[in-house]
Amino acid sequence: MKTSEKLKELGIVLPPPPRPVGSYVSGLKTGNLVFVSGQIPLENGAITLAGKVGMDATLEEAQAAARRCALSGLAIAADIAGGVDNIKRIVRLAVFVNSAPGFTDQPKVANGASDAMVEIFGEAGRHVRAAVGASELPLNAAVEVELVAEV
What we know:
This protein is of the alpha+beta class.
């Protein structure tokens, strides 16, 4: 089944690819890889989840935000690849969590992004990953996700 068909079956509509808000590009292709800059949870240009996970935001909220970030990253990768059906696999995710002191469930937050990729791509969605706690993230976002895809 094509990825576009799988998205439709799952009822997932990728957001419009977010544009960069600084001195960088949203993503770029080199060889057969697409690298996507870190995505924060945005909707209509506004942060959907801000603050520290474990204090201002719950684990479940952070997982949903990580999923949103991953879908934004996938939208950028699809735009660069000429369509989501041109993405062969997800290679790597890096998930940064704006963590409250003592919060150590970064891998569980990252599962929000990882599970989305496996749901969409099946085995080709399994990837290597980093789940990192951060003391602050841009615009006080609770989560940020980078993505590398093979095309």
